Sequence to fold (554 residues):
Amino acid sequence: MMKLLSASLVRLKKDKTFWFCTLGILCSSLFMMLSVSHSVIDSVNRGYEMCLDDYFFNAITFLGLFLSVFVSLFLGTEYSDGTLRNKVIVGHRRDRIYLSNFITCAVADLVFVAAWLLGSLPGLFLAGPLEMGVQNFLIYLLLILGWTMALTALFTVIGSLSDNKAMTVVLMLFLWLGLLLCASAIYDRLCEPEMQSSAIMTLNGLEVQDPTPNPLYVSGRLRTVLEALLDFLPTGQSILLANNEIVNPLRQLLFSLAFSFLSSFSGIMLFRKKDLR
Amino acid sequence: MIKLLSANLYRLRKSRVFWVELGFTLVFSLLICKWNYSPAIQSSQNPVYLDDVFFIYYELLGFVLAAGISLLVGTEYSDGTLRNKLIVGHSRGSVFLSHLLASVATSVLLLLIHGAVSGAVGFYLFGGFQLSVSQVAYTMACIFLSTAVYTAIFLCITINGSNKAVSAVLCLLLALVLLYLSSWLGAALVEPEVIHSQVIISLDGISYGPEIPNPAYLSGLRRSVCEFFYDLLPSGQLNQIIQQDFARAARWPWFSLAFFAAVTWVGFLFFRQKNVQ
Fold:
């Protein structure tokens, strides 16, 4: 296991995709932080109340994209170059091969999160300290590590089971996009207000009419289910974090752990039976 | 040339990727109609029209085409088919053109499937278009041309890149970048020229303070450049169609034709000199 892990980590260190993704995350978070900070400072100067907390985590949704690209190419190469088969031939157990791959991708995930944080740091100097405090910031950081780890676990399942590198890339990118769209649709529906009131223009100016029930509002058991689903999906957590709307961090952390465990467990089970050609 | 084209179309018919693309289009078109339909909203004062639902699919069209073209055409390299075609005496021009025509045919088929499903189901659920028949026909022609531009871009990347997986990553990332670039351009261009310094909400209704110039408003050369790129990019045109903003629609077909010709020409120039290993 240690030999497999150290071999994978050496490969990671030499992997061009890994460094491209790290650089991409660093640049994109830096660009987003600088561009948003300038417009927010401008809004604050005009009297709007905004703080760094509102947009500090905006860029984290993109971590999923970079993770999908990296994991698909990194694990896809194991298949296309025959490395995976060779590891099995020389006597390594399949579950250990799987776990070493997952841990390597998780290490890459840690580096990606660090790159995002490094790119976002200028925001602290430009738009002042975070109002959430150090403790909450650390909890948010833990949640980010949780959902990215859950996504890494899911991508490792696909990367270990799909033997066509190009197909793996497409599958993972579409999976990330699909999960993001799904979470986004749920989030939008949950944001619908219970009552709505329309405004009409009269001679006295704009007048707000009496509130009426919003047909799009989700209530009852369905609302509970959708809220749980949003917390369970890694992309759902990323949307909630980006919008600074974390209500129950412990629940989300436990969901991330459960998601990672379930993915890895089912991945190992399926990988054991996989025909490695 | 005809033989090459018929071979490509025959391969297309047997390709799993092609059928998955068609299936995805069909299911997604149905889901969009289902997700946006609510009997309560349809009977309210502000019902959803077919126009609001029909064009949503085009937001994802870039990704569908990127995945399909990179996997279908990329196989030509990985399986050595491309080299064999050149060895038996086909010119590079006819090989390139046959792939372009087959890819455009695939894209048209996707448009037709989406049009038929969304049109039929949407017409039943939401009623007809609010746009006139001629406007719908003109919009569909613009969508066809934007799709052809997307196809040409992804084909040029794939046919000039020797690694199928890397081509897939590049095409999908480019689709994402184009989508975000267009959203950013759209958001920048939609800023009003003047804004109210304050909004006062009282028991008498809503009243506004004096108007002041909007610092985020783009004017002069910067606005013209942003408008040019927003109209030139296929994702920009489709974004405007989704938002039903047809203010500059008259120049879209010319921009698309010019962009298509330029991309195809550049792609072919590179392909002519490419070392097909």
